[in-house]
Write a structure and sequence with these properties.
The chain has 200 residues and is of the alpha+beta class. The protein is built from 4 helices and 9 strands. It is elongated, with a radius of gyration of 27 Å.
Length: 200
């Protein structure tokens, strides 16, 4: 606990005297708080300026650092892909465009299994979601079990595995792991893209 300092001592003394004299404490306190009003107003103003200078860190950020497109209907979640349903959203960008972690998390899986190409999966405990990046240009340098920070580079846009055209295939899965229930990533991507487009 911080010491009150010389300006706080009159308030304590007045409060104790008021209690001893059976005077309402609030009235005694008000008399000694009045001189502190400008100081409190200045502290409030400084706190406001500090919050504007350092806004709170958002919980998520757009996973591609560069200009992107979301493609046509066949790039959407749920599109029929001749034998299976598309379980993610394609985000098109030039080969080599940096890919960053969409949220803080832990790497739960990575590899190259053919169809998915170079891929990495990151689990976020708070959101209870696994974010899976497919078709990366090169194998990710992060390791299974490693913690990643939102915005940390985890790979590059590419077209490894079964794909056409350079893009990130992003999956959002409810739960931990690459076999958890898939969700449509597009609403989240649109929100993050809109936030990125707003000037700071």
């Amino acid at each position: 606990m911080r010491p009150l300092g010389p300006r706080g001592l009159p308030f304590v003394a007045a409060t104790m005297a008021a209690v001893a004299a059976c005077v309402p404490t609030a009235a005694a306190a008000a008399e000694h708080l009045a001189p502190l009003s400008p100081t409190l107003e200045e502290a409030s103003r400084l706190a406001t300026l500090e919050s504007l200078r350092h806004p709170p860190r958002p919980p998520a950020m757009f996973p591609v650092r560069g200009r992107v497109g979301f493609g046509e209907q066949d790039a959407r979640f749920g599109a029929w892909r001749g034998g299976h349903v598309h379980e993610g959203q394609d985000v098109f960008a030039p080969a080599g465009t940096p890919l960053v972690a969409i949220r803080d998390g832990r790497v739960v899986e990575k590899g190259n299994d053919g169809g998915r190409g170079n891929y990495v999966a990151m689990w976020n405990r708070d959101a209870r979601r696994t974010f899976v990046y497919l078709h990366m240009l090169h194998p990710s340098r992060v390791r299974v079990g490693e913690r990643v920070r939102m915005g940390q580079r985890v790979g590059s846009v590419g077209c490894s595995g079964s794909c056409w055209g350079d893009h990130l295939h992003l999956e959002v899965r409810r739960g931990k792991g690459t076999t958890a229930r898939p969700l449509d990533p597009l609403p989240l991507l649109r929100r993050l893209a809109a936030r990125r487009a707003r000037p700071e």
